[in-house]
Amino acid sequence: MWCLVVPIGYFFAILVQSSNTFIFTKISFWLMLFYALVVGVSWTLIGTILGFTLSPVLAMCLSGGISFAWYALIVAIPPGPIDRVTGKFLVCCSYGEVLNSQAIFLAMLGIASAAFIITGLCLVWKLSRFTGMLLLCLGIISMAMTFSIGKSMNPTGSAPRDPSEMKCRDNICAWPEIPDSYFENNVLALDELRKVAPESWNSYINNPILWGSGSRDSLTFVGLNNVDGVLGAFVDQAASAQLIREGKSICGIPAQELGIIMTSLPWPPEQVVELSVVHERLEDNYCPQRR
């Protein structure tokens, strides 16, 4: 029963923290639940085999030392292949990314390999040499495979999220987790932008607005809770794109090198947009000598 503590704890943690029930339809949730089960079984196996082969005090101390090394010392190492072995998933804050299923499988293989290695060593030492050597070899081979495969993955073990999961409204698209009030602000700000923007921006601002996809050809969704702030971000994005197309500079640096930049400043809805004014505003915000 001890092996069920981890998956049950994970399930209730997700249940309490998430307000969106659609998470239970995600394959990543069930993979993580299965990973939690593998973690529970692996640590139960490690604790059991240490308990059978060592004195109670020594078994408890060694179990604590192994778990501390696995979850505290090893994960303190800079991001790399070892992150996938220990289950150190760094994805936390980007709506546009999800955990890579392969990273979850590697983490399962990593903790299971560690359990096989420790169990094999204990069996060789105290109980069954043949079974112990078999488990030890299996653990070493699977751990080597985990490290080898992990090298081909990105540092965070993440993967791009499927864009088809976005919800759209009035040519504006974002992830389902984004509050409706942010959608409303983007819709209103876009309407205001069409009223005050120069005609040369029409083709630019009429393209679909997507979360995290701002470029020289389209605006990006802005997660702010006031219309003037979203409008200011739209103005900055569009002006940056025009400055890039015209080969202009900002603070003496070619706009091409800076890319799309924003000032985080609002824009009054009644003020007609002039590129020279926005250019000045961008330089006031980004040029140290003007501060």
From TrEMBL:
The protein's superkingdom reads: Bacteria
Q: Does Membrane show up as a keyword for this record?
A: yes
Transmembrane segments annotated in the record for this chain: 28-50, 57-77, 104-125, 132-150
- Keywords from the named record: Membrane, Transmembrane, Transmembrane helix
What is the name attached to this protein's record?
Answer: Uncharacterized protein
Species of origin reads: Corynebacterium phocae
